[in-house]
Design goal:
Helix 5 crosses helix 6, helix 5 crosses helix 8 and helix 6 packs across helix 8. The protein folds into 2 domains: 233 residues, 3-Layer(aba) Sandwich (Rossmann fold); 61 residues, Histone, subunit A (Orthogonal Bundle), CATH 1.10.20. The protein contains 14 helices and 6 strands. A 6-stranded parallel sheet has the order 3-2-4-1-5-6, sandwiched between helices. Strand 2, helix 2 and strand 3 form a beta-alpha-beta unit.
Length: 312
């Protein structure tokens, strides 16, 4: 095994489980989170603080300014470099997060999709301007229900790309991705936290967002929106929990409504994360809310970790 992967829906406890590993073994954590890569996106992304990072090394945090973009391809390159560096130090690389697109790109490889076509993109944008992106998401459901289940109806970038690929090639983006193989040849110990009690997960989501607000999330969003060149429609600001507060600050809704929308959107995100996991049978699933689950998981990891550390 070359690394341990730990995924799961938001608020399922992934970070706590990884930190429990670090108390027992020489672990370095590699973040798999599309929001934590941005500087200043701290509270709403549950980014580990300085004290925690000093205690347990973390990687792939604060890689980009909020005005910049970051792709799955860049993540794969950065993750592979981080894994090699951690292994070179004799430590255990543990990749932890909930951005399933990144996990999928790492373990399955990046599809060699058709090049973007400005004319097709412009036509898709024109349809979206007339009908709205949720309507184009419905269109995508009829073409590629697998991709539509993973893409939020208000994610124009990914809806556009999925429709563009189909128009260019006559094949769905899901079909392209299924035919892809990774080139790195690494082997994984792959684990997914999958709570059986969805009501308990939803309660944790609501409680965690309330804690983020108490910690100053609204002020964080205000500070970010004051940055030159950063807008509510910027890729970084589309993150769940941020875009809803940005709408409130723009006068589009009350704070109570924004919070309600953010919690609902986070529940939808958790559902999409679970859709990704359930579509891949190679994830070894464990219910994090069951008594003794974390201890049982670490016992199950023992063999893989001994192999990785060269212990016989």
């Amino acid at each position: 095994m070359d690394a341990i992967l730990l995924c799961g829906p938001t608020a399922s406890g992934k970070s706590d489980w990884a930190l429990a590993m670090a108390e027992r073994w020489p672990v370095e954590i590699i973040s798999v989170d599309s929001t934590q890569v941005y500087r200043g996106f701290d509270i709403g992304s549950a980014k580990p603080d300085k004290a925690l990072r000093e205690r347990v090394p973390h990687h792939l945090l604060d890689l980009r300014d909020p005005q910049e973009t970051y792709s799955a391809g860049e993540f794969v390159a950065d993750a592979l470099a981080a894994i090699a560096a951690v292994r070179g130090r004799g430590a255990l690389p543990v990749l932890v997060g909930g951005t399933m697109l990144y996990f999928n790109a790492l373990v399955r490889g990046l599809a060699r999709l058709p090049q973007a076509d400005p004319k097709i993109r412009a036509a898709i944008d024109a349809r979206a301007a007339m009908l709205g992106w949720p309507a184009l998401h419905t269109e995508l459901q009829g073409i590629d229900p697998e991709a539509a289940a993973r893409i939020h109806p208000n994610d124009p970038q990914r809806i556009q790309r999925a429709l563009e690929v189909f128009e260019l090639s006559g094949r769905t983006i899901s079909a392209w991705q299924r035919d892809t193989r990774p080139e790195h040849g690494l082997r994984w110990s792959r684990w997914a936290l999958v709570p059986a009690d969805r009501a308990a997960l939803h309660a944790r989501i609501a409680a965690r967002y309330a804690q983020m607000l108490d910690a100053g999330l609204l002020t964080e969003v205000q500070r970010l929106l004051a940055l030159p060149g950063l807008e509510a429609r910027s890729p970084s600001m589309r993150a769940v929990g941020y875009r809803q507060l940005a709408a409130h600050l723009a006068g589009q809704c009350s704070l109570d409504a924004a919070v309600e929308q953010a919690v609902a959107a986070t529940r939808q995100l958790a559902k999409r994360q679970l859709t990704w996991i359930n579509a891949d049978p190679l994830w070894r699933r464990i219910d994090p809310f069951q008594p003794g689950a974390r201890e049982a998981w670490m016992a199950a990891l023992q063999s893989d970790i001994q192999t990785m550390l060269g212990v016989t």
